[in-house]
């Protein structure tokens, strides 16, 4: 059967993608950001996933205020890169595992998660930056990718608990798929940051690192965190962190923390990254 072997949490700061695309990752400012991903690139080569399920949020590229699904599952054959305001990044087209994506849609909907099925969708930096920090600049992405877009842009976003349970449902769906596939799931976004109004530039390293600690050791308790705490402690965009619960819910209750990286700042955002492996 297919199985989820590991999870990756990763910020998707657009400036990181710009630094990669412009070849400035070794500049004094960006060098410590990217140094923390060197071990990650070696790890993912060894992990060699057949499929990545990548949980991210769209930034008004595929969706706008007229239609914003809470959970949207990409079921198209491929997804063209696009972005809001920057133009599309010079990265490979994202190729899907359509059969597994269709199986996920069926399993999740019959498991009573109201998933929006996307048979056409562009993907922005929320999805492509995590791929770039893990794989560099290949001619083609070395693995198939199933996108799951989560609304954290317009109120109300889903709760951490709902996301955690969605992760469990994703694992159930993957393990019922009758093909031998090594699947890694990504939860992206965050960490603490606020992009506007009086608290613009807010970064909270203490909160961020406590979140990473609990993601490994106390995922059930962490998933109960209310939206107002993300807003108060991690800024208006800190609510993106609910997407990491989907990744964590898809893993074992007890996991091995393989690698962690945290750096402030990249642009005006804290960069967080973690790799967790299942014990079984």
User: Which word captures the global form?
Assistant: globular
Strand order of the largest sheet: 6-3-7-2-8-1-10-9
CATH superfamily: LigB-like
**What's the structural domain tally?**
1
Number of strands: 10
What is the gyration radius calculated from CA atoms?
17 Å
CATH topology: Protocatechuate 4,5-dioxygenase, Chain B
Largest sheet: 8 strands, mixed
Q: What is the correct CATH architecture?
A: 3-Layer(aba) Sandwich
User: Regarding CATH, which class?
Assistant: Alpha Beta
Distance between the termini: 14 Å
Mean pLDDT: 96
Strands, helices and their partners?
Elements: E1 3-10, H1 14-22, H2 31-35, H3 38-47, E2 51-56, E3 71-74, E4 78-79, E5 94-95, H4 98-110, E6 116-118, H5 125-135, E7 144-150, H6 160-175, E8 182-188, H7 205-217, H8 219-222, H9 227-234, H10 242-249, E9 255-266, E10 269-278
Parallel strand pairs: 1-8, 2-7, 2-8, 3-6
Antiparallel strand pairs: 1-10, 3-7, 4-5, 9-10
Helix pairs in contact: 1-5, 4-6, 6-10
Short description:
This protein is of the alpha/beta class.
């Amino acid at each position: 059967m297919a199985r989820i072997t590991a999870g990756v949490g990763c910020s998707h700061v657009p400036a990181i993608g710009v630094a990669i695309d412009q070849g400035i990752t070794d500049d004094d400012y960006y060098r410590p950001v990217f140094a923390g991903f060197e071990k990650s690139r070696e790890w993912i080569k060894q992990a060699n996933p057949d499929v990545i399920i990548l949980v991210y949020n769209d930034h008004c590229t595929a969706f706008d205020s007229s239609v914003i699904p809470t959970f949207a599952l990409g079921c198209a054959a491929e997804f063209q890169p696009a972005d809001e305001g920057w133009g599309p990044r010079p990265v490979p087209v994202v190729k899907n595992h359509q059969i597994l994506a269709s199986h996920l849609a069926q399993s999740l909907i019959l498991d009573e998660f109201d998933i929006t099925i996307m048979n056409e969708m562009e993907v922005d930096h929320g999805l492509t930056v995590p791929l770039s920090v893990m794989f560099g600049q290949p001619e083609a992405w070395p693995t198939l990718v199933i996108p799951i877009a989560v609304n954290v842009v317009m109120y109300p976003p889903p709760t951490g608990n709902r996301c955690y349970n969605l992760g469990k449902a994703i694992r159930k769906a993957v393990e019922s798929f009758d093909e031998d596939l090594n699947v890694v799931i990504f939860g992206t976004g965050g960490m603490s940051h606020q992009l506007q109004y009086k608290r613009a530039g807010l970064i909270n390293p203490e909160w961020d690192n406590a979140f990473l600690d609990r993601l490994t050791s106390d995922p059930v308790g962490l998933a109960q965190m209310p939206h107002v705490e993300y807003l108060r402690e991690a800024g208006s965009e800190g609510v993106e962190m609910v997407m990491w619960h989907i990744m964590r819910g898809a893993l074992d209750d007890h996991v091995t923390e393989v690698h962690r990286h945290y750096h402030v700042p990249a642009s005006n955002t804290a960069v967080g990254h973690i790799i967790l492996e299942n014990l079984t």
